[in-house]
Amino acid sequence: MSATISPLAPKKYPKMPAIEGVRIATAEAGIKYKNRTDLLTMVFDAGTTVAGVFTRSKCPSAPVDLCRQNLGQGKARVLVVNSGNANAFTGKRGRETTSMTAAAAAKAVGCSVEEVFLASTGVIGEPLDPGKYSHLLAGMAKDARPDQWSEAAKAIMTTDTFPKVITATVKLGDVDVTLNGIAKGAGMIAPDMATMLSFVATDAPIAAPVLQDLLSKGTAKTFNAVTVDSDTSTSDTLLLFATGAAAKRGAPEITDPKDARLGAFRRAFNKMLKTLAIQVVRDGEGARKQIEVTVTGAKSARSAKRIALSIANSPLVKTAVAGEDANWGRVVMAVGKAGEPADRDRLAIWFGDNRLAVDGERDAGYSEEATSAYMKRDSIVIRADIGIGRGKATVWTCDLTKEYVAINGDYRS
Amino acid sequence: MSATISPLAPKKYPKMPAIEGVRIATAEAGIKYKNRTDLLTMVFDAGTTVAGVFTRSKCPSAPVDLCRQNLGQGKARVLVVNSGNANAFTGKRGRETTSMTAAAAAKAVGCSVEEVFLASTGVIGEPLDPGKYSHLLAGMAKDARPDQWSEAAKAIMTTDTFPKVITATVKLGDVDVTLNGIAKGAGMIAPDMATMLSFVATDAPIAAPVLQDLLSKGTAKTFNAVTVDSDTSTSDTLLLFATGAAAKRGAPEITDPKDARLGAFRRAFNKMLKTLAIQVVRDGEGARKQIEVTVTGAKSARSAKRIALSIANSPLVKTAVAGEDANWGRVVMAVGKAGEPADRDRLAIWFGDNRLAVDGERDAGYSEEATSAYMKRDSIVIRADIGIGRGKATVWTCDLTKEYVAINGDYRS
Question: Engineering a disulfide at A190: which of A232, A307, B35, B95 sits with its beta carbon 3.0 to 4.6 angstroms away?
Fold first, then answer.
């Protein structure tokens, strides 16, 4: 946690309701941080289904390996998350740590080790001693309460400056079901699962394969469309839990991803993922401005997304926004370097509603004054129309400031 | 030009000899900068051959278009370069500017417009008025002198903090021939022709197709293996001119790239490109440290280069080096995100001679003290052995500092 809260932090946070079938406890295990919580235990009632998406890194963390393995069963009873140490690139000892943690967690809640899910975030390469926290799990499982969602979001923070929480209530059939989500950023964030950690739970009765379908489709335009610094973490994990408790109140059991009754739920879930993903960007390390990049007129949606990410990951574009400089020439550069089909002489560029370039050159009607005023906002929209097709994509990022360099220049020490 | 010279600037500069058949003039045209030269004219004797490599950007500048067009003839009589305005993304007016400049230059030296080569560097998207400098070309062509190489290097600088010059003399057959090179960086530097502009000239009598072969092969492990910020310019241009004047002194005319007599020349040329490319990195915007990244044991050389660039372009690796922090976990991350074949449990990482990780975890013999001392050096070598093949590659970059953000946060204004 940083001393300075991001200027893009929400003005207010939602009051997080309970999700029936989920109980939460946090603790100060002192893994790396002092005087703050760094351990989260989330206990699920029997019958809870689970789905997950993970980093595409070729060097995934030990907890990611464990989650992938346990996901096959589609059942979850407990989630244990620590901050301060990623248990990544820790070799055989890393696997011993996840085994021992899973055993302790399974014992604490009385389930099998295949129903345990783990996530760790923080420094890479330092061995994580399970002795620091595994003795706490039994007590946490016993003391866990349904009203601890905000505390959960705080316990998983690293360089985040604010906790990320969101809640939604929607109809499933005729019955209200609730979705709660938490996430943490804030550096080493790039597509291929953008946030390092995010957890969503609902009381809706949804089968694991349907959850997985919701999750896999939902991430493409949300978590996989945000980038802070183009650096993909070893630990990115997004888990979705469904306790099914709403079935008692008459919510229909959903076993088919095409079930029409899932519509409102899917929309609410996707909106939640988008909001959490954008919160991660708004708390990007050193972020002072949110940047939305939309590319239209590309050859395909896939091509549009690649161009959009080329713009969003360009250090020169990001530093220009930090300097409140409408340097659209750098957007031209980023379009040009993306390697995707483009025609220089058809390209048009907007910052907000200000069209700066059209037909391959500066817009004659371009107003430096209006654009400079626009650049002072804390949320900047960049649009590039490639002019050769119908492909469209939007991604989100933040500016690149001196604070990013300061935060990352001495993070480990 | 920046007020503060890079701490990585050369301690001394070579005295640049003349190249027979090349005359140089510089001038203060006031295109953007004041009280410094910003215009370079290089005049070549009749019979000079030329080769070039250019940016792969889909949005190339107007001068790049013109050079590509004129290269077909393989003959050069004059090069005109301006700094302060890139004449990129300037549409029809940009093409008019290159046409008018080429016409004025051709008239000044008495050659055809197809024998004119142009390069422009600076801001993108601002129209470049040829009226600002085209009237100067006739006088410059007349006053041009062979001993102006250092002045030439200064006139093409933008945010560079020192001029980049190099010279070499080698045998071609039994005759000494000379190679002179200049380059400018310093931001918007990434593979796909790394420097924005570099020009090399020799008095060796070498046919244009042979020059092109030398150049295309020479850039792969030199200019195309350096990166400052992963941003590829619209204007990257490297031109190689051969006046052939040494033929009078008995140097053999080289018309076949496989000619054995070319060996020493090729080696000297490649070394020159490497030195110029590394100088560009050492003058990268805000650079305080040079970083050499070598990847060994990858599946192929191509795979090794991709992994090396993933490490070299990672903002988290670059900020860690800036902070003198041997944060090898970020190297693991960068290997993992490269998308190339890798086996976490075979990976080994060195900073200098300090092996920090081996067999997928922290090296038991790792000394924090020795490594911390090493990180204080101004040239850092990172090596990652992937452990699965024989592919090898080396790339060069610089650290990412607050100064980079400062330089690029208000460059245009």
Answer: A232
